[in-house]
Structure prediction request, 66 residues.
Amino acid sequence: MQVSINGEIRQLVDGCTVRQMLEELQIKATRVAVELNLEIVPKADFAERTLQDGDKIEIVHFVGGG
Prediction:
């Protein structure tokens, strides 16, 4: 299936969850927020939320500093 991740079209396997997508992208789930079709996905739902063909995903990384 095709999804848009931060404006870039990517291919993912059918039935991929948010958690699996992050693992494939080698992104630690604890350091990001994920927006799926303009809705924030709670971290507790990452393993259950299944992606669909055509979904638009935005991944925001948290950056520390001072």
The chain has a mean pLDDT of 95. Strands lie at 2-5, 8-11, 32-36, 39-41, 56-61.
